Amino acid sequence: MSGRVVPGPDTPEHPAYEQLRPVTAAASVVLAENPSPMTLDGTNTWILRAPGQAGCVVVDPGPDDPTHLDRLAECGPVELVVLTHRHLDHTESARTFAERVGAPVRALDPTLVLGAEGLVAGERLGAAGLDLRVLVTPGHTDDSLCLVVDDDASVLTGDTVLGRGTTVLGDHDGALTEYLDSLRRLAELPEGTTLLPGHGPDLPDAGDTARYYLRHREQRLDQVRAALRELGPDPTPRQVVEIVYADVDENLWPAADQSVAAQLAHLRRVG
Prior knowledge:
Layout: E1 20-22, E2 27-31, E3 44-48, E4 56-59, H1 66-73, E5 78-82, H2 88-91, H3 94-101, E6 105-106, E7 124-127, E8 130-136, E9 145-149, E10 154-158, H4 175-187, E11 194-197, H5 206-231, H6 237-244, H7 253-270
Parallel strand pairs: 4-5, 5-6, 10-11
Antiparallel strand pairs: 1-2, 2-3, 3-4, 7-8, 8-9, 9-10
């Protein structure tokens, strides 16, 4: 079982709020109507099931919006809810939705788990006729994970890799160092693995996208190194942002501050 769904005349295009859009043989998406500079078009909630299966897995139920949750509940019996990381645009409705449909919630963060155990690296989840492999990918947050669906040739990446643009790094120690390792793991996925992100459109090759992200991060690090030569060894993150992110909308600079802080910490660690 593999391959992307060929859009038909009745297949909604992205973005299509609160419509079930098939993407692969096993994965469909419902886009929440919560667009913002940080969420792009909105949060993608993924519905996973093997062909012919009635039950489904819901990944990142998203904001606590009644219209969105009604649409998700219509997708069929929910066997399991999985969270890719702790941010509210992915998790706000998790407990409410899980209690409504009678399904457990699993995540790396134990505070988000409901009626089950927390997830661990390399764990395989059998649900809705699928074998889902947990790939721990810290960087965006320290509890970020991806779900690899090997028999569907797809991977759900949460905010680790987006469908458009690049992700903001977390504020935990070692965020960039961990993130680069996470991208290297994603870059090793088989050619043609469909990328199913937490925000933005799906992409045809997760490995290619991860390698692009790696190149982008190395370019940013070179720019930060150049800024340090100009500013000295101990600038504030905002001083670096004003140079390296001068072409970015200033409304996004607070997020860039966080990424630069992670870049500076990485450079101090590796030189």
